[in-house]
Inverse folding.
């Protein structure tokens, strides 16, 4: 398996499916729709949808069944990014090498674009549940998983905002990041497993894998904010230090954060090694650890 080619393949598939949901009609709310499209099609990693599909494929091959949930998850992720960048929260000017949504379209439109993405995700899943094609119970369970993930993500964002500039305990730091960053990553993996009808044992294993790579993703983000290349990241580095945020690097130092990253990645790989066809998810954990943006 060529991991990079597989990753590109999945990302291309998701780009095409997500693009189908973009509204480009000449309507009164055209600017709002453009604001939604601006963030949704900005060229992100599509990590959460890809994790959902790859987890589903541990058990089944007809991964097209996952698309409504995968698209909805990416909509929700982008809703969170738009709101995260707002002046009242992180006040960021750039994302993916472009002005953030509120810089491009204005703060009011950006807020409403985020709201629209969140609601569109629920509309899409509501339509999917109404199909009632035999696996409705699994879909309901997956929908519940998604809503719980959104709830935890918002809580994590609150803790990050509320305690900015303050020293926080180890428990608070881990709680914040497990929710803010890790909740949607873990939910994506669990949804893929649930829709595939995975056993409770498999679901527990994959939950642990998801928690580890979710934490790894955030630790790597914290490291990149110190040593990353602005041109590659598409946004300035050093923001966390300037805002006196508690991160794994500011709290433990770069060396300890790097060691923690290696350890949680190793644990994730050990879990996924239980699955003979889990090579892609194993490589994905390594990709998260080694990524440059």
């Amino acid at each position: 398996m060529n991991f990079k080619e597989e990753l590109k393949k999945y990302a291309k598939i998701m780009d095409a499916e997500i693009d189908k949901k973009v509204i480009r009609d000449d309507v009164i709310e055209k600017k709002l729709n453009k604001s939604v499209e601006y963030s949704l099609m900005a060229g992100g990693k599509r990590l959460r949808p890809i994790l959902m599909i790859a987890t589903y494929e541990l058990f089944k091959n007809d991964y097209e069944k996952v698309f409504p949930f995968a698209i909805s998850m990416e909509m929700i992720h982008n809703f969170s990014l738009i709101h995260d960048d707002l002046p009242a929260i992180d006040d960021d000017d750039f994302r993916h090498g472009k002005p953030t949504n509120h810089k491009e379209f204005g703060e009011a439109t950006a807020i409403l674009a985020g709201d629209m993405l969140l609601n569109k995700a629920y509309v899409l899943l509501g339509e999917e549940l109404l199909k009632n094609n035999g696996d409705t119970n699994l879909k309901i369970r997956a929908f519940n998983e998604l809503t719980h993930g959104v709830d935890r993500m918002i809580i994590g964002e609150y803790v990050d905002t509320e305690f900015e500039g303050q020293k926080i305990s180890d428990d608070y730091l881990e709680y914040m990041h497990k929710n803010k960053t890790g909740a949607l990553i873990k939910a994506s993996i669990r949804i893929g497993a649930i829709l595939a009808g995975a056993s409770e044992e498999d679901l527990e294993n994959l939950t642990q894998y998801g928690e580890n790579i979710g934490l790894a993703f955030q630790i790597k983000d914290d490291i990149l904010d110190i040593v990353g290349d602005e041109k590659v990241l598409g946004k300035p580095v050093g923001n966390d230090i300037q805002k006196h945020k508690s991160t794994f690097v500011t709290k433990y130092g770069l060396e300890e954060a790097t060691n923690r990253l290696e350890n949680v990645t190793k644990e994730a790989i050990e879990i996924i090694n239980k699955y003979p066809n889990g090579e892609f998810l194993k490589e994905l954990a390594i990709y998260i650890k080694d990524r440059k943006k």
Summary: The first helix runs from residue 3 to 19. The longest strand covers residues 94-95. The radius of gyration is 18 Å.
